[in-house]
Design brief:
The complex is a heterodimer of chains A (589) and B (376).
Chain A: H1 4-9, E1 14-17, H2 21-33, E2 41-45, E3 51-56, E4 59-66, H3 69-76, E5 81-84, H4 88-101, E6 107-110, H5 117-126, E7 133-135, E8 141-144, E9 148-150, H6 158-163, E10 172-176, H7 179-191, E11 196-201, H8 212-221, E12 227-233, H9 238-247, E13 255-260, H10 287-296, E14 300-301, H11 305-313, E15 341-344, E16 347-350, E17 353-354, H12 355-361, H13 364-373, H14 380-393, H15 401-411, H16 416-424, H17 434-447, H18 452-462, H19 481-491, H20 497-512, H21 520-534, H22 540-548, H23 551-574
Parallel strand pairs in A: 1-2, 1-5, 2-4, 5-6, 6-7, 10-11, 10-12, 12-13, 13-14
Antiparallel strand pairs in A: 3-4, 8-9, 8-11, 15-16, 16-17
Helix pairs in contact in A: 8-9, 9-10, 14-21, 14-23, 15-16, 15-23, 16-23, 17-20, 17-21, 17-22, 17-23, 18-20, 19-21, 20-21
Chain B: E1 3-6, H1 8-15, E2 22-25, H2 29-34, E3 41-46, E4 59-64, H3 68-76, E5 82-87, E6 96-104, E7 107-113, H4 119-122, E8 128-130, H5 139-151, E9 154-165, E10 168-171, E11 174-179, H6 201-211, E12 216-221, E13 228-233, H7 235-247, E14 256-261, H8 266-282, E15 289-296, H9 302-315, H10 317-322, E16 326-332, H11 336-350, E17 353-357, H12 365-374
Parallel strand pairs in B: 13-15, 15-16, 16-17
Antiparallel strand pairs in B: 1-11, 2-5, 3-4, 3-5, 6-7, 6-9, 7-8, 9-10, 9-11, 12-14
Classes of the chains: A alpha/beta (589), B alpha+beta (376).
Chain lengths: 589, 376
Amino acid sequence: MRSLQDIRSDPGRILALGNYRPGFQAILDFDYLSGKSEPSIAGIVTSAGKFQKYFWGEKEVLLPCYPAIGQAKSALGDVEWMFNVNSGRRAARSTADFFTEFPNALGGHIFAEDVPEKDAIELYNKYQTSGKTLIGTAGVGLLVPGYLKLGVVGGVDYRQLVANRLMTPGSVAVLSASGGMINEIITQVAASSHTISFALCFGGDRFPTTTPKEAFLAAEADDATTHIVYYGELGGQDEYELADLLTTGQVTKPVICYIAGVISENFDTPVQFGHAKALAGNKSETASAKRNALANAGATVASSMADFAKAISELPTNTEERKDIPVIESRNGSLFSSTISKEGDDGYEFVGTSMQAWAKEGDIATQVTTALLGKRPQSVLTVDFIRTVFLLSADHGPQVSGALNTIVTARAGKGLVDSLAAGLLTIGPRFGGAVSDAANEWFSGVTEAREPAEHVENYAKAKKYIGGIGHKKYRIGLPDPRTTLLAEYADRLPSHRYFDYAKAIEAITSAKKGNLILNVDGHIAALMLDILEQEEKYDEQSLKQLIDADFFNALFVIPRTVGFVAHYLDQKRLDEGLFRLPDDDVLLA
Amino acid sequence: MSRIKLSEFAAKSLLVDDYAGASLRIDSLESDVDKLADDESYIVKVDQGIKKRGKQGLIVLNVSKENISEAVRSLADKGFSRFVAEPMFPHEESEERYVSFERTRGGISVHYSERGGVNVEDNPESVKAYAPEDVPLPKAFVERVLRVMDEQHLSFIEINPLVVRGDNYWLLDAAVLADSAGEYVTKWTEDDVVDPHVPSDSEAAVAEMNQNSPAAFSFRVLNPDGALWLILSGGGASITIADEAMNRGKADLIGNYGEYSGGPTTEESYLYTKHVIEQLLLSKSPKKAIVIAGGVANFTDVKKTFKGVIQALDEYSDALKTQGVKVYVRRGGPNEAEGLAMMKNFLEGSGLFGSVHGSDILLTEVITEALEYADA
C-alpha cells in the first residue's frame, strides 16, 4: 500500500469510472473545503454526456466525460487514482482496463458489491501485490483528511464532512470492514474531540483487495498516526493476522477494537449477516474467539459499543481545526451551461479569447472556425478551407429559392430581419441543406466499410438521390470551377479517405449519367470530414456528433446569410414594389 | 459475493459427466422419476443442503424405480420438498475417502483423508492439507474439479465419501458452496440454490426484493414470538445493534435479524418495512417494539428511506396501536435532520412514538430504550 505520507505530499488526480453523482459531488466538496485549487476528479468515463455539472463550492463546474478509458487517457494524460463505481460484474474488467491505460497510476477504489471471489483474488494478486493501492470491494474507500477522498467514506453530504472536521489532518487511524460503521466511528472520533489521520474501509467481502493487515502496516508506518481504531466482524481469519502483527511487534501503536457478531453465537445454525464475509463457519471465525486473540495480543478490545466509544473518548484529544475552511451557504443549480463565452476580467470573452484580442488578431475566418469547433483550430489548413468555403458560398444567383424568398419578402415591404429569415427558413433538404446529408453519406459509407457500388445500388433501389451528387449544368467534361478549387485541398492533406470515397461514388454515378458529379456540397462535406480527422484529430465519434448536430450545414448557412442580406439591400435600393406572379405563370388546375 | 449452497443434484451435475441421478420435486414427481433408468437400485435423499442426513433418517436405501415415489412421499411427510435419487453404488466402507476444495487468497486449498465417510468425524487428524497437484487422487479428477470451480464460480466443494478405483472415481455425496456474485455467467441458477431453512412469507418476499434490486435487503426470523423487531440499515451497524441485545442477555427477545442498505428507494423502504411489520403482527409476545436504527450513513438518504418506512407504518398504524407497539429510532447520514423530524412528527401524531434520535446518541442506546418498554 502507498504510504500515507506520500499521499499527503502529492494527493494526485482521480479518474471516475461509471455514474454516481452524489459520490463524485462529495469528492469535489471535500476538495473545495480542503482549499484545493481544482477538483481532484479530472474526468469521468461514462457514455452519459460530454460533460457533467458539479458544484465547486457555491458555483458550478463542468467535469469532462469520456466514453472509454483510452479516450480519457488521451485527453487528460496521467491520473493517479481510479474511483470505480461500475457494477460487480464489470468491476474487474474495467479495473484491468484502467491499469492498462494508466500503468503508472497509484491505485484505486472499487465500490461495487457482488464482485465474484475469483475476480477479487485476481485483482489482489495482480495489483495490490505489485505495489498498487487497490481498495474494496464492497467498501467505501480511503479518506486522508485535507488531502484525498477516494470513495464515499466520510459521507456524501458536505455537512457531514464539515461536522466531522474531515478537512483537518489528525492522528487517529480508523480502519473498518463495514462501510456504515466506519462513518459511525468517524462521527464518534470527531464528537469526542479527536481528528483522523486516515480512514480506510476494506469492505465486507471475503477477499478484500486491501487486507486489514496491509492497512494496519500502513497505519504503523504513518508518522501522523498515533492510535488505531478498528472495527471487525465475525467470519474469516483476518484478526489472527492482526494479533500476530501485535505480538511480533510489527505494529506497536495502541489499537482499540470492536469485533461485532457475538449475537451469532446465540444460534444453533450459522446465520449469514449483512456482509458476505459475516458468517462464522467454525469456532475460530466467531467474534468471541477473535476478540480473545486480539485481547491476548495486547489490543484494547471493547465488549460493547458503549465501551468502544468510551475507549475512543479517552484517547489524547485534539481540538485544532483548520481556520481557512470556506463556508458553503447556498447552492442554486444553473439552468443551462455554456463553454462558448463569458464575462472575464478582460471584458467579454468569446471561445477563450477576449473580443479586443479577436479584433487585434483581425481574421474573421479564424474567429468563425474557432466558434464552430468550440476551440482553437490546430491547423491553418482548417481555417483556410473554411475561408474558401465561405468565399465560394456567399451567393449563387437570385433564382435560387432562398434568395428568391428574401427578395419577395423585401418587396412586400418587410424589414431586414424578416426578409433574411424568409431566406434562411427556405434552407432544407432540397435547397442548401445537403452538406450535412452528404457528410452523413460519406461518413457512414467509410466507417461501415460499405463498398461504393453497394452504396449507389442501395439508393438506386430506394429511388433516392445521393446527397452531394449531381448538378443541373456542370457534368463530366464541363467541371464546376468551384469544385476544382475545393479539390485542391485534398492535395494538401496526408490522406483523405472521405474524399476518396466520395470520388469513388462519383465515378460510378457519372458513368451512368454525365451530370451526376460530386457537387459543391459533396466536396465541402468530404473535405471538411478529412480535414477534421487529419488536421484537428477528431475521432469517429466526435465526427458523428458533428453530423448529428447539423454542423456541416453551418458551412452553408453562415456565408449565404451574406448573400441574402445583399439581395435584401439590393431590392430596397431598386424599390420595385410588391411582387405578384403573373397569371400566365400559374396553372389553375 | 456471499457463499450459497447448491443442491447435491446440481453439484454432481456440474462435477460428473452423464450423472445418472435425478432431481425430484413433489409436484412433478412422476415425470421426474421417469428420467431414471429402469434396472437399477436407487438411493433417495432429501436434497435441501442439510448435513448428517443419515442420522436424521432423511435417506432411503435400496429403492427400486417403482418404489421411488413412495420413498419420496415418506420423506416429504417430514416437511421436505426437494429430493435426489441416484443409482446405489456397491462398495466397501474401507474404499471411502474424504476430500474438500476451498478457494482461498493463496489459491485452491485441498483437504484429503483416506478415512472418509462417517469415519472422518472420529478421525479429524487424518485430514491433511495438500496443494492441488500433490493430493493423491487421479489427476483427471482434480483437474476437472479445479476447472469447474473456476468456470462455475464455486468457492467450496466437499466430497464425502469419494470412491476411487484406479483412474475412475465416484462421488457418493457432494456439497458445494457457490459464489452468488458469479451467477450471471454460470450454468447453475437461482433454482439450484438450497437453504435448509424454510422461509416465512415475509422472508421469502424480502429475499425476492434482494434479487431484484441494486440495493441490499435481508430478513431472517430468529424468534417468531420475539418482542424486538429490527429494521436496521447497514451490514455492520445491524450486527452491532443485535450484539447489544445479546450483551444485555436479551438475545431471546429479538424477533429478527436483517438489514437494508446500498441506497434503497422510497418504494423499496416501504416494502421492506411492510414485510417486517407483517411478521411482527404474527408474534405472540405480549409487548413489542420496533427498532429502526442504523449508523451514520455514507450515502443512503435518511429522508428518502424514512419516507417509505413512514408510509408502511402509517398503513399498519391501527393494527400496531392495537398490539401496543412502540417505535424507537436512531439514525444518521445525508438529510439526517429532515428525515428525523419527519419521523418524529409522524410517530407522535400516530401514537406509536417511543423515541427518535440522531447521531448525537450512541448507536446501541436505542436498544436500551426499546428493551425498557418491551421487556417490562
